[in-house]
Amino acid sequence: MLSFKHWFILLALTITALLVVSACASAGPAAAPTAAELPASITLTAWVQANQVEEYRGKNLVTAAERLTKELGGKTTVKVEATIDAAGWADYKKKALLAFEAKTGPDIILSGHEDVAPWGDNGYILALDDLIKKYSATTDNIIPSLWKSTEYKGKRWAIPQDTEARPMFWSKPALKKLGWSDADINGLPDKIKSGQFTLQDLLDTAKQMQDKGVVQKGDGFWTRWGQGNDWYEFYYSFGGQLQDPATGKLVMVKDAWQKHYQFFYDVFNTYAVCRKDIIGASSSKVVYPGVTSGTIGFYFGGIWQWSDWAANYIKDKGGEAYLFDTIGYGLIPASTKGGKPTTVTHPLVYMVSSQSKYPEIAFRLLMLASADDLNTLHAVGSSHLGINKTQVNYPAYANAKFLQSTTYMLDFTNYIPNHSKFSVYDNITWKALTGVASGEMKPDQAVKLVEDELKAQVGADVIFK
Fold first, then answer.
1. Model pTM score
2. Given this structure, which CATH class describes domain 39-163+346-414?
3. CATH number among 3.20.20.240, 3.50.50.60, 3.40.190.10, 3.40.50.720, domain 168-344+421-464
4. How many Å apart are CA 60 and CA 196, to the nearest integer?
5. pLDDT of residue 36
């Protein structure tokens, strides 16, 4: 039996414990580290893929680090070691995956938004919703529709770095030689926009160019030279769908794929307006020199190619001024009269590695790199569209004629899916397309191949319509 003295000691200890618990409860959760608690120096690593006109993807991070150091009161110096990689996307992504697996990946990595799904599933990158909410004063300025490209499984995993459109380009001199008036040529973008100039009209015009000797045989309509997102513009134009919004599953619309493959069978075989060796050709040695010469009737590509062409292919002819005189551009035409034209937008995004020791610092740096002035340096220099709502009025962006004349295309755009198995879907549909282009496969055979292989390789993750 406890003595009075022992009861008194026990009571005192109990009261003390209760006071400690109460104090902890009223204090709430532990506060995030303050600037004073950060080390004197932080060095972040960043990997970006960029050609010579896209280097602000990396340079802007260095400038943002200087701004962040000032925001932190100079008590912590933030530096960025930015690796700007001009390798092809396949090699770049292979390098990234190997680094993630070896736990040697960078703090920040730039890639296409489609990598959000597989990299998120594998734990390579962090979901950013809490930080996006915490820093809403700046994140709210990003164009709302662009956040969609960062979403996967109800979370946002990235920050948009740039966006673009993928237009149809055409030779103004070729249309002129065909008998089109200046008014006809200058009015073509609006005619496409209203659905009055269709994909069939494009085929017919390209064939007329060849038949009348305006362009060489096979130069009426050049396609993309390899696998890529551009091809899906036509699938969308024919009523296609790639992802079900309710379930997130991939979608195969068989009728749309049938029309898609029939169109390209006609392009390469029936009308023969595209050389078959364009698929597999070098973009830098064959495609871009051909298109910028003005001797190719039509070609579909991306707006970022405009700056590349001006800087690296026709600089001696007058650069961008020559392009405006020689190359026209508009949306991908509708498949039916009065139908809706299309384009595809493929935002590149910055992601924060799950291996980063300072994810919030990395996030803050990325938001500073997304400021109007820095993102405009990239947008104007590389012919990409801006990411911020206020950027359209930023002087350097507002005075960029090409960007201002293509921004409307975002009203007609589509995204490729954020789905961990989309690469399988893409490989299968591309395999069928190459068969159709070569003439070794008919459109109905291509559709059957796609359906059979999707069922075998993707199964329940695809909805067939």
1. 0.87
2. alpha beta
3. 3.40.190.10
4. 42
5. 55
